[in-house]
Amino acid sequence: MATAAIITSRRALALFLMGLVATLALLSSTPNAIAAGGCPGSLTTPFLPWADSNHYWLAPGGSFEDSHSSWALTGGAAVGSGSETFFVGNTGDKHSLSIPAGGSATTPPICVTVVSPLMRFFAKGGNSASPLKVEVLATTPLGTAQLKVASIPASATWAPTSQVYFLSNILALVGPGGTTSVKFRFSNPGTAAWQIDDVYVDPWKFR
Q1: Which of 2, 20, 25, 154 has a 20 to 30 A CA-CA distance from 71?
Q2: What are the two backbone dihedrals, phi and then psi, of residue 5, each rounded to the nearest 5 degrees?
Q3: Are the beta carbons of 94 and 81 closer than 8 angstroms?
């Protein structure tokens, strides 16, 4: 009986994995699949000038042009004048987010899918002792899990960050429609101020 149960479990696992692979292949076959998966956003290639041809969608309030942004700001973090200088979103953009020493900024919930692998944004500021910390926050059955996913080095001028990979999107496997929500927190534990702008999420892991 035990052997039969093990065989049945293995077959169920194999069928699940086969279904998952088929789903991932379907999602990766068309950019429009993200809409079907319940995650809104128009896909663009904002980092193409930096040899990154991945498709991204702008995080909610991620351009900081909306004065009613739903980001949670602490420690003096605030939207101010001065957009990133490449204007990847819109040539008329005029704002960015300032994060002083001790400040933090947390996105509203962002929809991700089982194939959402990374995010990327523009940043300026810091020094050798003041990197910008990036964390991903996700709700689990045991509470809110937080994971540091990047430490952004100082930059005297506006520049795109490296691709920031995050792992909590695996929770989407148990979410309705294959999606889940996470938040990203940007915090400044150092002594030098930071500015960030145009925060994007890449919804495609397979191409």
Answers
A1: 154
A2: -65, -40
A3: yes
